[in-house]
Amino acid sequence: MRAYTPITSNRMKGTLGVLIKLYLPKGDFPGGKLTTLLNDLAIGSYAETKGPIGEFQYKGFGNCIYKKKEYKVKHFLQIAGGSGITPPFQIIQEVHYLITSGKSTEEPTMDLFFGNRTEADILCKAQLDAMQKDIGEDKFRINYNLSTLPEVCAPNYSTGRLSASDLAKYVEGYKPGEMMILLCGPPPMVKMVIDWAIETGFGEEYCVAF
């Protein structure tokens, strides 16, 4: 059994869209146990699912529930690596809907730090860029962080590991309790961010690791 975050909105009735990164066998690596099985399924095949599960809910207008506790935030810092984009994508998608539909003028601003090996590995880039254009770069900033930069880089491309100084810049201007950090990626990266939050007094309770 594996846990996946849908990329379709819960407003899309009758459809469940899941983004799955396929890891094929290579050398001594046998490939992903579940992803290779899913890849071999014929169109029209059935798969059992259950859910939803998880402890974080975004209710709109900056209101969140995490571990049964209610929060009101002004900003989301979302840090993702590879296929870990799916939980942040859901929140970004909801904020985008509430803003563009005119249902809310109180949505939090957002930063997305999205790490990948190469530009070709960036999942959902077209959708993220389109939502940023609709929301506005002043309210939704994206940093595509790559291990290998292309010859021609967009202004929002960077390289190098996420650091404490990077985090300090992201939280500048926000008091503890005004902002939540949403994390989904490699365990060392997640641990580094949570350790930083504890050491700086930002608060582990404002860090959500998916």
Number of helices: 5
Average pLDDT, all residues: 92
Rg, nearest Å? 18 Å
Secondary-structure element order, as H and E? HEEEEHEHEEHEHE
Please report the total strand number as a whole number. 9
Low-confidence stretches: none
Helix content: 25-40%
User: Biggest sheet, open or closed, and with what strands and sense?
Assistant: 6 strands, parallel
End-to-end CA span: 16 Å
The general outline is globular
Spatial ordering of strands, largest sheet:
7-6-5-4-8-9
Going by helix content, strand content and strand pairing, the class is: alpha/beta
Strand content: 15-25%
Family: Belongs to the flavoprotein pyridine nucleotide cytochrome reductase family.
InterPro entries: CBR-like, Cbr1-like_FAD-bd_dom, Flavoprot_Pyr_Nucl_cyt_Rdtase, FNR_nucleotide-bd, OxRdtase_FAD/NAD-bd, Riboflavin_synthase-like_b-brl
Pfam families: FAD_binding_6, NAD_binding_1
Keywords: FAD, Flavoprotein, Membrane, Mitochondrion, Mitochondrion outer membrane, NAD, Oxidoreductase, Transmembrane, Transmembrane helix
Give a brief outline of the structure.
With 210 residues, the protein is of the alpha/beta class. Helices cover 27% and strands 22% of the residues.
